[in-house]
Amino acid sequence: MRSRKSSSFSMSKKGLTIASLAALLAMSACANVSRETTGSISKPSQTSTYGAPSKPVSQMSSSDLRGALAAYGQRYEANPKDKTVGLSYAAALQMAGRNEQSLAVMRQVAIAHPKDRDVLSAYGKALAAAGDLTKALETVRRAQTPDYPDWRLFSAEGAILDQLGRQDDARVLYRKALDLQPNEPAVLSNLGMSYLLANDLPSAERYLKQAIGQPGADSRVRQNLALVVGLQGRFEEAEKIASAELSPSEAQANVTFLRQMLSQQNTWSKLEKEGKAG
C-alpha cells in the first residue's frame, strides 16, 4: 500500500500533458548541458578523425558542446551528405535545444541515405523532438525490420508512443528492446518515464534506479530519478541524487533546476509542507 506522503499528491494523466512531458525530458538535457568545467582541471577531449570531440554529446559540458557544434558544423557544411558528421551534428544540436535545425540537418542526411537504419532512427528522433510525432512514428517504423530488429528503434518508437499518450503500447516496445539489449540504461530510463506519465511513481523510481546502476548511464537518467523522487516529497534525497558526482557549483545548478521543474508542476510548496508535517 502506498504511504500517505506518496499518495496524497497525485497527478492525473490529463494533468501531465505532452507539454509537461517535453519539459520533464528537457530537464535532463538542460541539466547536462549546464555543466561547466570552469575552475576545474580536466583532460582535453579526445577527437575523432573528423576533428570533433568523440565524447558522446550526453556527457559533454556546455563548453564541450560549443566546441562540438563548431567543429561538426564546419564538417557538415563541407559535406552535408556525410552520415557520421550529420548524425553527430544533429545530436549536438538537439542537446543544445536547437531542434528545428537538428531536424533540417537530419532531413538532408536522410535524403542522402534513404535506407540506412541508423539515419532513419535519428531522423525519427529529430522529428519527435521538433513535435512532428506522426511522421516520427512512421519513419521509425519504416526503419525497423522484423527479421533483424533493432533495440534502438523499439526504444525510439516507444518514446514516441509515450508522447502520444499510449503508455501500454510503449512499454511493450521497451520490453522488446530489453529482450534484445538487457539492462540497457537508456531503455530502462524511458520505461521509468513511461510510468511517470501514468502517475505510477514507485514503478518509475524502480526502473530509473535500475537504469542508474548500469554502466553507461548518464546524467540525464540521474536527473529523471531526482525528479521522480522529488515528486514523492523526498526532497533531501532528490537533491542528493541531482547533485551527485558534480562540483559544488554544478550541483547547485542542478538542484535549482530541479526546484524549477517541480515549481512548474505546482508541486514543490505542496510537497514540502506535507513533508514537514509528516
Automatic annotation (TrEMBL):
TPR repeat residue numbers: 151-184
Superkingdom of the organism of origin: Bacteria
Signal peptide: 1-31
Chain residue ranges for the region called Disordered: 36-61
Key word Metal-binding present: no
Keywords from the UniProt entry: Signal, TPR repeat
Signal keyword on record: yes
SUPFAM superfamilies named among the record's database cross-references: TPR-like
Pfam family, one: TPR_16
Matches recorded under InterPro entries: TMTC_O-mannosyltransferase, TPR-like_helical_dom_sf, TPR_rpt, UCP035836
UniProt-recorded name of the protein: Flp pilus assembly protein TadD, contains TPR repeats
